[in-house]
Amino acid sequence: MENIYNTPSETIDGNIKAGVTKANLNIWKMFFMGIMAGVFIAIGAASSNVAVHNIENVGVARLVAGIVFPVGLMMIVLVGGELVTGNSLLIMDVMDKKVTVLQMIRNLVVVYFSNMLGSFMAASMIFWSGNLNYTSGLLGAYTIKVAVTKSTMNFWPAFCSGILCNILVCMAILMAGTAKDIIGKLFAIWFPIMVFVTAGFEHCVANMYYIPAGILAATDSTYVQVAIDNYGMTAEQIHSALNITGFLSNLAPVTLGNIVGGMVCVGIVYYEINKGKFMNPVRDKKD
Q1: Among positive and negative, which fits the CA dihedral 180, 181, 182, 186?
Q2: How far is it, in rounded angstroms, from Cα 37 to Cα 154?
Q3: What share of the chain is helix, strand, coil (3-state, %, to 5)?
Q4: Are 189 and 176 in contact (CB under 8 A)?
Q5: Domain of 217?
């Protein structure tokens, strides 16, 4: 009887095969697929903000955000897109000698900046669409609050949060690879992503939306005033945090953490568990 799902070993083999395709993509195809992934993640992030911006209980708000946010990764996995955090699993291909280190770096660099461009485009369109006007500008104020919180994080907490986040993102991708049907893939993606959002972990591509959206929102005096009235912020605090320096001060440690979480904690570990010589001596003798 045929298995209704792929075994862990088959899942790793399938991910490596998919990684070869990713590493050898035409540069322009890779670039535009990266843009689309950035847009998809931004849409999930923006929609989760709409869902929670007027919920006062932090736990409930995070849970609701976690329910909505995974739609971004679902679109990427089912329709196609290149997401830098998930592509950290290309380390498995390097270890299996299917892809060179330079091919992996080429993919990660192109996809990183195309994800950023897609996120910026989505943030701009959402701001210009008037979407942030919900609840008399409270959504715009909430967008500012989220961005300020992220922009003022210290390096170490942002780095550790990034590690935890991408462990869950990469597990979602691998778990989706175990499923042979769409419903199975959707549930496999949804639960780990829901957990990372509910826990409040940091994802570099999501933050490529959250912080620029906050910077744009801070250009609107109405949103700034609502943020001052509702969140006890000052205009000086908002404008000193929401700039390119604040953006990069979050993006650098979160990106590094995402890389460590995806490559080291998931990619290398699960490659060694399933294909490594030290952990699979019987398999090596048969080979």
Answers
A1: negative
A2: 27
A3: 80, 0, 20
A4: yes
A5: 8-275
Please tell me whether residue 26 adopts helix, strand or coil conformation.
coil
CATH of the domain at 103: 1.20.1080.10
232 Rama class: left (phi>0) / alpha (psi -120 to 50) / beta: left
Q: What is the pTM of this model?
A: 0.94
User: Alpha carbon 28 to chain centroid distance?
Assistant: 22
Q: CA-based Rg of the chain, rounded to a whole angstrom? A: 20
Question: Are 75 and 248 a contacting pair, CB within 8 Å?
Answer: no
Task: Please state the domain count of the chain.
Answer: 1
Number of CB atoms found within 10 A of residue 239's CB: 15
Kindly report the CA angle at 50 between 47 and 56, in degrees rounded to 5? 135
Q: Output the tens digit of pLDDT for each of the chain's 287 residues.
A: 567 889 999 999 999 999 999 999 999 999 999 999 999 999 999 999 999 999 999 999 999 999 999 999 999 999 999 999 999 999 999 999 999 999 999 999 999 999 999 999 999 999 999 999 999 999 999 999 999 999 999 999 999 999 999 999 999 999 999 999 999 999 999 999 999 999 999 999 999 999 999 999 999 999 999 999 999 999 999 999 999 999 999 999 999 999 999 999 999 999 999 987 777 776 544 44
Q: How far apart are the first and last CA of the chain?
A: 26
Residue type, 2: E
- On whether residue 281 sits in a domain, the answer given is no
Tokens describing residue 201: 């972990």
Is 119 within the bounds of a domain? yes
How far, in Å, are 38, 52, 195, 250 from residue 69 at the CA level?
Answer: 13, 11, 10, 20
Q: Is residue 3 part of a domain?
A: no
Count of Cβ atoms closer than 10 Å to residue 28 Cβ: 9
